[in-house]
């Protein structure tokens, strides 16, 4: 009986010892991470700009750099922004994307040269399993739906145009003579457009003018032309129109601030006065012109929020985290930056 009791005690002892050793082993494995990946201490973001000399895009670039600095200070995660200028060449941009992938970038942020050529860049990123955030120039819907790791950040073009048109409508209702300088009952205008194939240019053109019509502004188009978002091209066109139609133009509707400033340059060269100018983008020089009274108004898409959305999506996906719910992505992939009218107070 005594021997049986001792045998049972030994069994209990060895069973306890087995559980104890097993528990220690499990604790050891858990404390070493249990095979789970440790949090990243650095991320690399590849950024390709369609043209670095575009004023609005350059403003966004500056805000992205500010976001990276603030993020590093707040979270202690090193952020490498590899920013490249495609200089308006899709081939150059394609090469930049391949380079970003070869360098092991965690995420790509692309301002496409040709929005219809996004599929090739998406394919490369998808094969490398690197998320893509497009911005400013929206790829076609079919390309956006190719992969669930494709996002877009931009400002809704129709909203931009309606707000721009509202600046003119409000001014006309307040004081018709401020726009109809010669008192003939018609506001004679010229139109400076961005790229002919750019969806924002097409939509801004259509809805800015439609808003004037809907708002009861009697308008007559004198001339219009493509200035490709560029200040110098807009300046050349405006100078030509001022020579062809002296003392006729009363309003210049411009798809962006750079072109509005180009029109202003031409006016100052030929000493033309009394023409109202409206732009879109609220670039730094554009805002300066508004506050000095040289531009009647512009439309701001809040560069800080715009760049902040790009950066937030990029860092979240680079770290393997979900996109912050606060961004309220439409269809899980689109972020539309809030916009507002800016006029001289």
Number of strand segments: 12
H/E order of the elements?
HEHEHEHEHEHEHEHEHEHEHEE
Ends: how far apart?
103 Å
Uncertain runs are 1-38
Mean of the pLDDT scores? 90
Helix/strand/pairing class, anyone?
A: alpha/beta
Strand order, sheet with most strands:
2-1-3-4-5-11
Strand percent estimate:
15-25%
CATH architecture of the largest domain: 3-Layer(aba) Sandwich
Shape from CA axes? elongated
Helix amount? 40-55%
CATH class type of the largest domain: Alpha Beta
Going by CATH, the homologous superfamily of the largest domain would be Response regulator
Question: How would you describe this structure to a colleague?
Answer:
It contains eleven helices and twelve strands. The protein is an alpha/beta fold and 345 residues long. It folds into two domains: 42-155 and 303-338, Rossmann fold (3-Layer(aba) Sandwich); 158-300, 3-Layer(aba) Sandwich (Rossmann fold). Strand 1 (42-49), helix 2 and strand 2 form a beta-alpha-beta unit. Mean pLDDT is 90; it is low at 1-38.
